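Consider this pair:
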Amino acid sequence: MKYFSDRPHGRVEALRRAREYRRELLEQLPLATKVKRTYIRNTTGEIGVALVKDITRSGKTIWRYVAQWPTRDGGRAKAAFSVGLYGKRRARQLAIDARRKGLAALLGASR
């Protein structure tokens, strides 16, 4: 980051030098490419809870509900619940409960 002072040549000259510096920096960057992003709505009905499909090394498909929430240190915590073990409805509810409990702990710790 660079600072361009108004003195001794004034604001107009400082702005001109700042724009020139910016142009030089932009020339060093690669050309921008358009990244196509799709927007997928949350299908679980609960923010921070997602139904995830994993494929093991042996090729077996595993479904699980994963809950994520922020932590106090700026990271993310998560918990996963197997659909095969708990059933779809129970795994979803366990994930929702885990997220709510994590958020409650976060809000309780910040007060």
